[in-house]
Amino acid sequence: MGTQALHREDATLAQCEAVVTAVGEDGVELDRTVFYPLGGGQAGDTGTLVLADGTRLPVIDTRKSKREGAGPDDSLHLLDPTSGWRERLAIGTPVRAEIDWQRRHSHMRLHTATHLLCAVVPAPVDGCSITAEYARLDFALTDPLAREDVQRGLDALIAKNASVTYEWITDEEMAANPQLVKSMSVKPPMGFGRVRLVRVQDVDLQPCGGTHVRNTGEIGALRVAKIEKKSARTRRVVLEFA
């Protein structure tokens, strides 16, 4: 049985009770987790695994499991090598998994903002990076972009306070609707029977496995930090918190 990825259904969960199911060279896997693994341009979560006696073991990153036979939601929680975790964790050990919520919430706000950018700049995405400090989207675009126009469009969509919801479609439905895919560099996670779509009400709809806020108003104030010409066919837009 694979990991139950609780962040898929509720990105606001900051902690959960779990049991260690696999031990690797750099960390452990759990039967359920609130930790999001690096993927889709979004950084992996950090946080803590808390033992029954109160010992706190720092999680320094989260990655998708590369264990043979691993499922699509199986995640490796990378642990601080100086924490002595190898002597404390074994298969069957109960833990409380706690994410760094402030960092995660920054990811959620910026990731949702990139969906708004896709509506403001109607061009294919050719690269993406989402961290706690900034979000970057590279657009396959030859025409110049005016920063003032992008900022104005982004501000208007944030102010709409549009709801952000999830829905699921089958792999077959995804294959039949290729126009839903906005990214040239990140393919939707097909092959598992169903694909999650993220809908920003009346703004955007696309497949995405990342974490998002519940409405666009929760994004808060952002600024278009810069727009760069990365190549003759690529324009990079970088967002930061205002």
Describe this structure in words.
With 242 residues, the chain is of the alpha+beta class. It has 2 domains: 4-99, Elongation Factor Tu (Ef-tu), domain 3, CATH 2.40.30.130; 103-241, Threonyl-trna Synthetase, Chain A, domain 2 (Threonyl-tRNA Synthetase, Chain A, domain 2). Helix content is 16%, strand content 37%. The chain contains 3 helices and 15 strands. It has helices at residues 101-120, 147-159, 171-175, and strands spanning 4-5, 15-23, 27-30, 32-33, 47-50, 56-64, 75-79, 94-99, 125-130, 134-140, 164-170, 194-200, 204-207, 222-231, 234-241. Strands 2-3-7-6-5-8 form a 6-stranded antiparallel barrel. A 4-stranded antiparallel sheet has the order 9-10-15-14, with helices on one face. Strands 11-12-13 form a 3-stranded antiparallel sheet. Strand 14 and strand 15 (234-241) form a beta hairpin. Helix 1 crosses helix 2 (147-159). The longest helix has 20 residues, at 101-120. The chain is globular and about 55 Å long. The mean pLDDT is 95.
